[in-house]
Amino acid sequence: MPIKVPDSLPARATLEGENIFVMTEYRAMHQDMRPLNLLILNLMPTKIVTETQLLRKLSNSPLQVQVELLHTSSHLSQNTDADHLSSFYTTFDQIKDRKYDGMIITGAPVENLDFTDVDYWDELCQIMEWTRTHVHSTLHICWGAQAGLYYHYNIPKYSLPSKLFGVFPHTLIRKQSPLFRGFDDVFYVPHSRYTTNHLEDILAQPELELLAVSEEAGVFAVKSEDNRRFFITGHPEYDPDTLANEYFRDLNKGQAQNLPAHYFPNDDPTQTPVVRWRSAAQLFYTNWLNYYVYQTTPYDITKI
Questions:
Q1: pLDDT value at 135 more than 50
Q2: Which of 180, 192, 203, 299 has its CA 20 to 30 A from that of 80?
Q3: Which residues contact 95 (CB under 8 A, 6 or more apart)?
Q4: Half-sphere exposure of 21 (CA within 13 A, CB side)
């Protein structure tokens, strides 16, 4: 998928170095088609890393996608340069009167806090309410999924006895779902979280459909019956070394940390992790964009 991004966005050089098609603004303006307008609310502290991971997965179809980056104004990011935010990000007040074909709400390392104790919770609730009328399809990731399930359907999250950390096998509940078209019977997804959603809470909500689960990681993929909201509890967009970096970061801080499961060969952290989730991750994001954004969004974006 040609991704249209600002010429100087750091992710552009990284993706072009990986032979991923990143479209210049000039070329995008001269194509006779309406691009999909996609908004990414990036709640992660390492914003440049997350931008690059997501843009990489949104880059493999002939569709043109115009991506905008959004950050919360009620939280001051301490891990991203202020110049980067001012150059490439917008705030909700600046875009609240616009409409979007698709939106991604990322995870955030705040799952041990009650939702209402997160300093940008009120702003996030305002944004999630706004998506009902201004976004055709919204994808919530990890803590963003837990926040969305709680806000839209009053489904709580629960603390786990220990951190769920590793790359876990998953199976499909709805094998005919277009979201998982082309998937193997068993597919792998990275997880890194301290909380979870209970299966029975999802099944008790008639407006939700359970799509995929893991025996070890629990609920993975859920969607609303009207296909407007999607919730995934893992991180298919993670890079090969993301879990390793997290593991060694915590060790260097003196924090007790289990090895990420099913990740290092022979559970030996000196060995290079084996990637088993890349193809499923690419399919997942491509399917969401194709079947639940491009195929169903109105050509006149004002009619969303």
A1: yes
A2: 192
A3: 39, 68, 70
A4: 13
The one catalytic residue among 140, 170, 235, 246:
235
* Contact status, residue 243 vs residue 166, Cβ threshold 8 Å: yes
Handedness of CA 121, 126, 127, 132 (dihedral sign): positive
Q: What is the mean predicted confidence (pLDDT) over 140-164?
A: 97
Q: Of the listed 142, 152, 170, 191, which one is catalytic?
A: 142
> What is the number of other CB atoms lying within 10 angstroms of the CB of residue 254?
7
Note the pLDDT of residue 18: 66
* SS3 category, 163: strand
Q: Is 235 a catalytic residue?
A: yes
Kindly report, residue by residue over 3-54, the tens digit of the pLDDT. Answer: 556 766 777 677 667 655 555 555 555 444 688 999 999 999 999 999 999 9
Q: What integer pLDDT is reported at residue 255 of this predicted model?
A: 80
Instruction: Name the fold adopted by 3-240+278-303.
Output: Rossmann fold (3.40.50)
CA distance 55 to 91: 19
Consult the annotation and say whether 249 binds a ligand.
yes
How far is residue 175's CA from residue 185's CA, in Å, rounded to a whole number? 9
Q: Which of 247, 243, 242, 245 is nearest to 258 (CA)?
A: 247
The tally of CA atoms less than 13 A away on the side-chain side of residue 285 is 26
Let me know if 240 is exposed, middle or buried by CB neighbors in 10 A (0-12, 13-18, 19+): middle
